[in-house]
Amino acid sequence: MEVVRNGETYDLSYAKKATLVVVLLPLLVMYTEAMLTPALPTIQKEFAINPNDVSWILTIYLLVGTVSAAIFGKLGDMYGKKKMFLVALGFYTLGVILNGFAPSFEWLLFSRAIQGLGMAIFPLAFSLVREEFPPEMVPQVQGMISAMFGVGMVIALPLGAYVTQHWGWRWTYHSAAPFAVIMFILAWKILRESRYVNPGKLDWPGALFLVWAVVPALVAVTRAPNIGWTARETLVLFALSIVGAVFLALWERRAENPLIPLDIVTSRNPAIVNLGIMFAAFGISMMSQANTYIFQMKPPYGFGKSILESGLLMTPMAGVMLVIAPLAGKLMPRIGAKPLAVTGALVASSGLAVLAKYAQQFPPNHLWAFVAVITYVGAGITLMNISFINVLVFSVSQRVMGIATGANSLFRNFGSTWGPAIAGTVMSTYYVLFHPPGAPSWVQIKIPTTKAYEVLFGTSAGIYLFLALLSLAIVEVMKGGKITGDMTD
């Protein structure tokens, strides 16, 4: 069945089949990535490396992925988004396969870098949805994609702990590899090439300046909690990044075919969404880190639950996200993206404020009250995130959709990197020393106190309040059942 919208013809039967691919995609990626977290201590022991080294397993993936998202987004606009999507998914699949057979730590870092190239699949998938789906269907599909991120995380954390404990960390990748291959085949068979292509040459100087601007900053943020935020190495890395960002901006202003056109990413709605998604990712990361510790730390500083139990206790939040995300996407064309963004941010902020106010009272006696509040917060975050991505894709021309969504992923990754780093610093500031039972008398570990949780939740609450105010500046793209921001030229 075909429908015509704004002079463009869309195939509904194709859209429904393609939905299967793009909705299952975040489930695969979150399954793969979240399963890795419980396995990190085992990997550290096998390769005889220190905690700072093992953190590079996560860092290298993020470093490569942040840059690749922007570059592949541009290549998607130039050569076709399906082509670049398959290339990125191919890298991701290859990396997942190689990770499970890594004979050394250096090999594992190399294969994780290959996997990081595949992070570009998400901006390309968002672009394909916008181009090939009827406009009224886009918000609902974007909502389903967003919901699957939370569902994948809840499934993967306890499952990853179980797999690592019973079969070893390599099976976290061996078990994911067949699904990655299946996803590649489905994408190759089902997805159609995008209808908008802008031929041209890749802006190689811009790509090099982007690497210069991004990599030192991400390395600095990752290492700062261990070596210090005012350490010479940290300050030098931040300075290098600032210089790279200045050169990037100067070059992109004069480049004939810029990698990141500044007039696109800095126009009103994209700029608000990019800034908003960066702060949102920052707040989510801090909240998630605090939640993990609260669930697993021993009373009175936490609930003393296992990784498996912690995952199960987050199931209500995933369930609410799974319901709210597509529902919000369905209602968005009638209500508008802006009101939902403001509402979502206010809901998240109020819930986080409750967590901050009562942080010292939740553990160990109010487990289900805590679960209820984080579920409420998750509902608000879901509303806001879905609104932001729809504001973005309906505010830019479809011919530059890859650039817009790729740049958005870059900002998201920056926020996701800063969150754990700041959370780690806060937890290292407010702590008590704990002597594990049965350990030698000189062994003591740092346990975050409820004051650390109060600071983390309170900061996140302030961030989401700021995002509610920021969302008021959005120019509405949906009104009265019509998508007013639809741009197709």
From TrEMBL:
Residues annotated as domain Major facilitator superfamily (MFS) profile: 18-479
GO cellular component, one term: membrane
Chain ranges passing through the membrane: 20-42, 54-72, 84-102, 108-129, 141-159, 171-190, 202-222, 234-251, 272-295, 307-328, 340-360, 366-393, 414-433, 453-475
Keyword list, A-Z: Membrane, Transmembrane, Transmembrane helix, Transport
PROSITE patterns with a match to the protein in the record: MFS (PS50850)
UniProt-recorded Gene Ontology molecular function terms: transmembrane transporter activity
Annotated InterPro entries: MFS, MFS_dom, MFS_trans_sf
Membrane-topology descriptor: Multi-pass membrane protein
Annotated Gene3D superfamilies: MFS general substrate transporter like domains, Multidrug resistance protein D
Pfam families per the UniProt record, alphabetical: MFS_1
Localization (cell): Membrane
Protein name: Major facilitator superfamily permease 13
Native source species: Thermococcus cleftensis (strain DSM 27260 / KACC 17922 / CL1)
